[in-house]
Amino acid sequence: MRDVAVVAFSQRQEAMINTESEVEFMVPLMNEAKDAVGLTQQEMGFTCSGSSDFLAGQAFSFVMTIDGTGPVPPISESHVEQDGAWALYEAWVKLQCGDIDTAFVYSYGKSSPGSLRDVLATQMDPYYVAPLWPDAFAIEAMAARQMLDQGVVSEQQLAEIASRSRAHAASNPHAVRTAPKSVDEILAEDYAMAPLRPSDLPASSDGGAVIVLAADDKARELCDRPAWIRGIDHRSDAHTLGVRDLTTSMSARIAAEKAGIGNDKIDIAELHAPFSSSEAVLTKALGLGGDTVINPSGGAQAAHTMMASGLIRIGEAAQRISCGDADRAVATAASGPCLQQNLVAVLEGE
Amino acid sequence: MGKERAAVLGVGQTKYDTTYPGSMAGMLREAATNALEMSGKCWDDIDAVIMGKAPDFFEGVMMPEVYLAEALGCVGKPIMRVHTAGSVGGSTACVATSMIQSGVHETVLTIGWEKQSESNAMWALSLPQPFATSVNAGAGGYFSPIIRRYMMMTEAPELIGCMVALKDRKHALNNPYAHLHQPELTFEQVVESPMLWDPIRYSETCPSSDGACAIVLGSEKVAEAHDGPVAWIKGIAMRSESGSFAGRNMVSPAASEACADDVFAQAGIHDRRKEIDAVEMYVPFSWYEPMWLESLGFAEKGQGWKMVEEGATSIDGGDLPVNCSGGVLSSNPIGASGMIRFGEAALQVMGLAGDHQVDGAKTAVGHAYGGAAQYYAMWVVGADK
To answer: I need a surface site. Which of A73, A210, A230, B113 has the fewest CB within 10 A?
Structure first.
């Protein structure tokens, strides 16, 4: 495989961006990432984005956003209706084909205009489950209950995860839930959706992110310390909740193995875990131990930007490598109920 | 390091119709099973699935790849979902090809689909947006002035579009999967059908269809071991541009020409009309056939309509048969329509196109476009490596 690295990253996450459209808030982010590497849109070998029409409330919503890139003259481009991490994966594959050296990736989502926990019900089986409008938080709570019943995790441990997310988020200007709370304070919260407490749930946010990828010497030319993608893979679990073991994640485990997570120690992990319980599932599936700092940004719990949270995890991990804080990191992206789909990327400095 | 060769091993389709008599999962499973059967592969052989479809509002299921994981055999495997407007079926096949060209996977299943009967496309396309006026006229309302512009520029006779429509409906009679089978249709009936968006008549538009089209792709190693014909992929290209900007050529957009130039260069094609034996191009409104003939370089500018008039694009004696399957004008499951073009092009060079086979076809083109004629995907396939 060809060496491909993250060479630029920009992001914006806020509890609600209500005076700007997706195009309006993405243009400055796109320009920020391009300026960081001194490349114009036409110099990008390939462009790929991720977004959801159901969040935008409009069919073909990504057609508006492509204008933000300035695609005149025409560009080589594609779009996935998935988290931007999958757009990054498609761009990485394109770079592996060998005829381009750079790629531009972006994704975005505004869930504030609707009720995300209701909107997500439309992801479920359209004949047997979606008509019941299952609440997205209730489905996650069901998985958490199963974990507690089996002794995979305790309420104390869930509160520890939630407390740590807040503590880390305090130093992240892009996080939206940054007020510290002790484990005892969290355990004293009333349940939001038993056994999950308000602090166990994701802090919903609007926003987006942009990543520039480059291969081989081009990456070294554009960035002092590129974050090399040493392995990247994605897998799916079954959709039908009843046939899955919700206390673990086969898809994350396989993807992590394929990405080569076990080849060396991991300094930091940015996990796309919207709930305390999902973080517990992922750390176990990835085999992460005591030496690894989990979610130094506060993670997707501290700011959950639907469609961009996974891409932001990769960007956060890359940024920590590029600035020298870490030598080896893992980032994950998830999609579907109870972490049904997982993408795992292992990044390294040189 | 270099690009790996990729080939089509199998194409599977469902009977296109107003309503597919089953679930979404069942419809995809049927197309995928048909493609696997032709390829001689089984579900265990598939490394990854690349799925494409147009807006989720067309069925009311958000990110349906999540729900379709089991039906597409993806438990423990990768599944991706591409969405690039009407070109999506073609783009999805391109992304799937990249999975093999990159060396990441050996055998990939790609599938495009739409089940328009689950929802209402006109509603889905007309959701009110803040600060924006709704077209509320459907795609025909958008494209008709562009067609009129083409007619003015080229002085094409008024009824060229009707000739394309009749030709594609006659072609469809030889394709058992086509949605519209109208054996009695006459030229006069096409001309006299109601004018919907002047100059587009009812019979010059595509139907609303349910359907899925799946393609099994393999690496060179996998294709060499295949017992049966394959279609070698000689080039893939995608291009996008803004839908509106000052000076934009709406009749032959720069992205269309750039996409064609790229794909034909990869395939080593110099004389496009002479070297290509069959074309499956995305023609949802009849006039787009002459327009794309020019934009893709099969005809000089202003001459595309003459090819239609001369019958050059008919399977009966034409030198460049276009849409022998009946094309989008005879079946339009939107998210599948591009994939069908790509799959039908492959079937032609595999010699498996049945009653709509172009004799001795060696090189064929699949083409799709979408959005405000701003998204393009193409591939060139050949019988020989």
So the answer is: A73
**Tokens of residue A324, six digits:** 């020298």
Nearest CA in chain A to B372: A63
Q: How many CB atoms lie under 10 A from the CB of residue B119?
A: 17
Of A218, A204, A228, nearest in space to A304 by CA: A204
Please report the sign of the dihedral spanned by the C-alpha atoms of residue A128, residue B15, residue B13, residue B81.
negative
pTM over the 0.80 mark: yes
Query: Do A159 and A271 reside in the same domain of the chain?
Result: yes
Determine contact, residues A216/A101, Cβ cutoff 8 Å: yes
Interface test with A, best of B1, B49, B59, B83 (most A CBs within 10 A): B83
Within-domain flag for B187: no
**Is position B266 within any domain?**
no
Tens place of pLDDT per residue across chain B (385 aa): 469 999 999 999 999 999 999 999 999 999 999 999 999 999 999 999 999 999 999 999 999 999 999 999 999 999 999 999 899 999 999 999 999 999 999 999 999 999 999 988 777 877 777 666 665 667 888 899 999 999 999 999 999 999 999 999 999 999 999 999 999 999 999 999 999 999 999 999 999 999 999 999 999 999 999 999 999 999 999 999 999 899 999 999 999 999 999 999 999 999 999 999 999 999 999 999 999 999 999 999 999 999 999 999 999 999 999 999 999 999 999 999 999 999 999 999 999 999 999 999 999 999 999 999 999 999 999 999 9
Contacts of B60 in chain A (CB under 8 A): 122, 126
Tell which residue, B244, B292, B308, B287, has the closest CA to residue B147.
B287
Of B1, B255, B259, the CB nearest to A2: B1
| Residue B333, SS3 per DSSP | coil
Q: Does B237 touch chain A (CB under 8 A)?
A: yes
The terminus-to-terminus CA distance of chain A in angstroms comes to 17
Tell me, rounded to whole angstroms, the distance of Cα A241 from its chain centroid: 22
Q: State both tokens at A29.
A: 């982010």
Which CATH number covers residue A218? 3.40.47.10
- For A224, the token pair is 């002092």
The residue in chain B having the minimum alpha-carbon distance to the alpha carbon of residue A344 is B78
> In chain A, how many domains are there?
2
